[in-house]
Amino acid sequence: SPYEGDILHAPPLLLLLLYPIEGSSGTRLLRALFWTMIQVLVAVIMRMVVVEYERSPEVSKDCCHLGLALGDEDEEDDIPKLIEEENKKHQVQLDAAWINELVPLAYMLHPYSILTCIGTSTISVDHLFVMASVLCALRGRTIQTSVAISTATYISPYYIVLLPPLALLLRRKQEGAFSSYFSFVGACCAVMGALMYTSYAIMGSWDFVNAVYYFTFTVPDLSPNVGLFWYFFIEIFDQFRNFFLFLFQYHMLVYPIPLAMRVSHRPLFLFAFSLGYIAIFKSYPSIGDAAFYMPLLIIFHRQLIEMRNLFILVQILLFVTVLSPIFWHLWIVTGAGNSNFYYGLTLAYSAAQVLIISESMLAVLKQDKKQRLLSKKRD
Prior knowledge:
By secondary structure, the chain is mainly alpha-helical. It has helices spanning about 10-20, 30-55, 55-65, 80-85, 90-95, 100-110, 110-120, 125-140, 140-155, 165-175, 180-205, 205-220, 230-235, 240-250, 255-260, 265-280, 285-295, 300-305, 310-335, 340-379.
């Protein structure tokens, strides 16, 4: 069995897909072409998602209230000034005409995406199915969405938190039919069950469950990475490990439903926001996770104009990106440093991402408040 030992932690169907590429028969050129094409395909689907979103009624409504983003949020009572600023919306719409190309380019040219492609990380396959799911949801295709998100969850179980925003997207396309929630969840369960049974039929045992899912949730491998788990669980006393493991892993399930209730009118933003906290709090994160959700936030440039300290947060990420390999070399290779140096950078990396997604949420909520204020005044 390939799951004997502690080397392989990918599900069987993904192993079956990648073996011709990554196995002994695959050449270096073939690997490079395969992973490059996966990245390009993700970018193409990302562009299609942006085009679909730009055609949605949500964007039309935002454009009608675009002048609000250009006002001073501390002057909410100055309605005439806000209305006057709305005259600038046409120029801003012209500036945003290139957004369809900017988002996929930001993904393709992101340094983390380039490093992910060079490292032939399987995270790109996750991203392919995740983007396919949101594209199908924007087009109102329940079955295709269920297949895509179930496959992504089969590879990495953290993507289960994307079900609420996808359900909201489908419900909007299907004219608010409440039954669409149940049909979508039922289809996801059916597809996930079929994937698991197919894996069992191929492998002849359930060994892959321990190697893939149990491994992900119990975090036995504490090798240094860009996440928050490894250093904390090295230092924690064994008697407290299970308690904090529960807190670290399952607190992610607290967010989806309340957030879906609060920003149900912006399901695509909720989708991007959810990808953000997955990238921060999953047990074995990759820099490719950050490169995946950050370009998606550009879609909401009309709202994120309210974000503060964005320049500082970007500088922190650049600082961490440059110093991480240096501190790793000092710690692992030369022995001149220690784990605290490297873990300090991973904390800064995670903190910057937390601030990015939290400020983006605050910016969206501010815009919504201003839109309600202006609508109320006009009525």
